[in-house]
Amino acid sequence: MKKLTEAEITERIKELEYWDYIDEVLHTSLDFKNFADAFAMMCRIAFEAERLDHHPEWTNVYNNLSISLTTHSAGGITEKDFELATIIENIIKGE
Fold first, then answer.
1. What is the pTM of this model?
2. pLDDT at position 1, please?
3. Name one GO biological process term (predicted).
């Protein structure tokens, strides 16, 4: 998996509504109605992450879910990170 350049990342991030490029990772922080809703979203994302064999770094505190994506084996952001970020966006939007 090839690490994307800063220019490629800057261009691709424009396609994502909920994500930022911070400290060399794709990052989002999402608030839900309650803990159960946040946890349910984590479960839905977990199945997709497992299918892609690409797992997020995330934390959950009550109703907040914070997600960071990077490809450690490539030393940065790759297409796989953008693929998972797009899938997560689609889940959030109910698509």
1. 0.94
2. 84
3. tetrahydrobiopterin biosynthetic process
